[in-house]
Every structure is written in C-alpha cells, then in structure tokens.
Amino acid sequence: MNCVVVVDSREYVTGQVVVKAVKGLGCEVVVSTLAVGDYVISSDVAVERKRAMDFINSIIDGRLFQQASELVEAYQEPYVVIEGDLWGAIKVRGISENSVMGALVRLARGGVRLLWSRDEEDTAYLLYSLSTSSRGLVKVMGNRRKAGSIRDAQVSLLSSLPGIGVKRAIKLLKIYGTPLNALVNFRQWRFKVSGLTLSNAVLIRRILETKFNDEGQDQQGDSALG
C-alpha cells in the first residue's frame, strides 16, 4: 500500500469521519500518540486539522500560534487544514474579520502552508493527496541527490529515522558534529531535541540495536512497528 497516514490517537477519536474516508481512499491508517500535529504523512510532512469554529477559538485563546510554532519547528512541510465555513464561524463567534486575516498572514509568514476543505471528506482527500505526492517527491529527490553533497547524505541518514525528519537531523548534527557521534549518543536525543516522543525513541533504539535478520523478517517480539 503506497498511501500511509499516521493519525494522533486523540484525533482518531474526534475525527472518525476523516479517518474512515482516508481508509476508503485506500490508505493505511496508523494510530500513534503524536507530540505535534494531528496527522503525519512522512518524516517531513505533518498536518494540523482545524474545523472552522476551532480555528477561530484557537486564535482567540492563542493556541493556534503555539501549535503552529511547534509544527514549523518539527517538520519541513507543516500544513494547517481549515475545514468548513470559516466566514460563517466568524459571524457566529463575533470576531473581527481583520483579526482572522491577520492570523492567516501570520501563519503564512511563519512558514505554515494553509489548505482549505469544505468538510471531512475533502480533508481526507487532501491527506491522501499529500501522502501520494510526498512519496513521489521523495523518490524524485532521491534520484536527484545521487551526486549530492556529504552534508545532504548526513542529513538524509539521520532524518530517515522515526520522528527525526530534516529539521531535527540538522539540529542533532549541529549538536554532535558527525552522524557517527550522533548515533553513538542516540539515547540522549529526547533530551536534546524537542518533540521527539518516547515511542519514537524506543523505535529508534530497536532499529539500531536489533540484530539484522537476513530472511527479511523481524525477530519475534522485536518488530520495528510494534
């Protein structure tokens, strides 16, 4: 299956319609406790889903910009999907349209990519499109980088590990200097970079410490995926 979408365990409960529609499009859905975002498409791509009224409320209470900041810090391609009738929500909530416009501009300037959907099924299709296009882009970029720099290879090596991605890989390389030194000290990563979950840390440890099985199957009880 080419389409895989990781969904946060809380979003899995509140976003059942989206999850069902994503599965209906042929995607595998993996439930996990995510430190940042509602959906993760790849090590570089994550999505925060905001229903229109929740988007307005999160502007008012300040949650939106904190969540956006964490998303930008953790992922190379952070997205916010605004779902539903935003203008209707503005009228119901009684907030100034200028305030909402200002928030949208602030998000865009801060590096967040904005997507719009009419309903849950539209959101599901956006997730599907991001998943399939991200994998195609990774393949193309991988082909282009065969003659890339050592720096690119170093970042690629670390970013391929669960929960790391490009930004965290660069931060680890700045801290430890070389990929080898970073890997030797992998048990300290959770304390050095923000947003790396315990489940990701455990999975990284299992990947690095599990003996290679030439038959292509994980040893019983040591499957990297749980």
Summarize the structure.
The chain has 226 residues and is an alpha/beta fold. It has helices at 9-14, 16-24, 52-61, 63-74, 86-93, 97-109, 120-144, 150-159, 165-176, 179-184, 189-192, 198-209, and strands at 4-8, 28-32, 39-40, 45-51, 77-83, 113-117. It folds into two domains: 4-138, 3-Layer(aba) Sandwich (Rossmann fold); 148-209, DNA polymerase, domain 1, CATH 1.10.150.20.
Topology readout:
Blueprint: E1 4-8, H1 9-14, H2 16-24, E2 28-32, E3 39-40, E4 45-51, H3 52-61, H4 63-74, E5 77-83, H5 86-93, H6 97-109, E6 113-117, H7 120-144, H8 150-159, H9 165-176, H10 179-184, H11 189-192, H12 198-209
Parallel strand pairs: 1-2, 4-5, 5-6
Antiparallel strand pairs: 1-3, 3-4
Helix pairs in contact: 2-7, 3-5, 8-9
Task: Write a structural description.
This protein is an alpha/beta fold and 226 residues long. The chain is 56% helix and 14% strand. The protein folds into 2 domains: 4-138, Rossmann fold; 148-209, DNA polymerase, domain 1 (Orthogonal Bundle). A 6-stranded mixed beta sheet has the order 2-1-3-4-5-6, sandwiched between helices. Helix 2 (16-24) crosses helix 7 (120-144) and helix 8 crosses helix 9 (165-176). It is globular. It starts with a strand and ends in a 17-residue tail after the last helix.
